[in-house]
Amino acid sequence: MSGGEPSRQLSDPRELLEGYLDHYRAEVLRLLEGFPDPEVSRVPSGWTPVAMLKHLASMERRWFVWDHAGEPLDDPDDDRDESGALRTGESFAEVKAFYLAQCERSRQLVAAGRLPDRASRIGRFREEEPPTLGWIMFHVLEEYMRHAGHLDIARELAEADQRAAPGAAR
């Protein structure tokens, strides 16, 4: 993952989408590296930073593997429990490995496609007109931007809790 923001000189939509997807993929990992207790929730809804990373990996898998490429998945929503809450019982290392593998698989599928290519009718789009690869890439980017903001706030809360803990260096 490159991590840096794409060049300001880019004008090609594909290069911009690919560049910003990689930028936010790396940003999410940057926010999580060194996160105090990534398996502990700091927000009222109860999601943990590790569960958010699992959600992002599953989101990549759903949109690019299942919806776009049409590869069957046993459980396309494996990042949520019966109530719809984000969950995972896995460690940060396990989820990070799954996340990195999903990002790489997404890159491979995107590289093999063109922006106007329509998603398959295997996934969610059996009854309606499937979106284009370009639309899917933009939608996934939007998900990353929103959730990177969530993780940024959760990290700020975790670091504030750490500073406020008895015995913390001031």
* H/E element sequence: HHHH
Radius of gyration: 17 Å
Mean pLDDT: 88
In the CATH hierarchy, what is the superfamily? dinb family like domain
CATH architecture: Up-down Bundle
By CATH reckoning, the class would read Mainly Alpha
Counted by DSSP, the helix tally is 4
Shape: globular
Report low-confidence residues grouped into runs of 5 or more. none
> Could you describe the largest sheet, including whether it forms a barrel?
none
| Class computed from helices, strands and strand pairing | mainly alpha
- Kindly report how far apart the N and C termini lie: 35 Å
Q: How many structural domains?
A: 1
Q: Remind me, CATH topology?
A: Four Helix Bundle (Hemerythrin (Met), subunit A)
Instruction: Let me know the number of strands.
Output: 0
Strand percentage lies at: under 5%
Estimate percent helicity: 40-55%
